[in-house]
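Quick one: structure for this chain?
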Amino acid sequence: MFLLLVIVVLSYLIGSIPTGIIISRYVKGIDIREHGSGNMGGTNVFRILGWKYGVLVLLLDALKGAIAVLFIARLPIEVFPFTNTTPFDDFTLIQLIAGSAAMLGHVWTVFAGFKGGKGVATGIGILAAVTTVDLLIGIGLFIIIVSVSRYVSLGSMIGALSIPVTLIIRENIFGAHIEGYWTLLPFLIVISLFVVFTHRKNIGRLIEGTENKISFSGKSSSK
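Got it. Here's what it folds into:
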């Protein structure tokens, strides 16, 4: 149990690294939370510092999830501390736990007053290791929706929700027979709903028509 707790704490701390704040202070000497939407995520960095630094923050945030899943989860736990009743082996289950802790760390970072990003990029890093096909489809939808609507929040939510839907379609319509389907599906549903939850203020602004649109020149615009 002690080693599992270490994995959870380390994953949370990795997820908590405020990359947007670090990059904005290093590049321009500002606190990104005091500009734009006030969020420290890659989208706000894109708006304030330009697409290069926005992409850099997105990649670093995704890397946090990947590190938790691919490296921290490998700490040697010889005996699993509780009965594993899932179809996954112990290591895969530990990966899911570590990834979840990293995502929570990103959204509620201990290094920035427990106020972080929306969890999308970190979630991508996690999902890349456990469900690549469904993630790629979600990313494709995200790109299409953002390209057409210029609402990153809308693209993020629909892209996230499409991942468990794609899993359901592949398993039940195309007969993909995905290993650990009944464990992976609830995990993906929780992750996607969590992404929607972190965008709850954006949903209100989308309904009101006041949500900022992304500009491909690196500046945001209102409706």
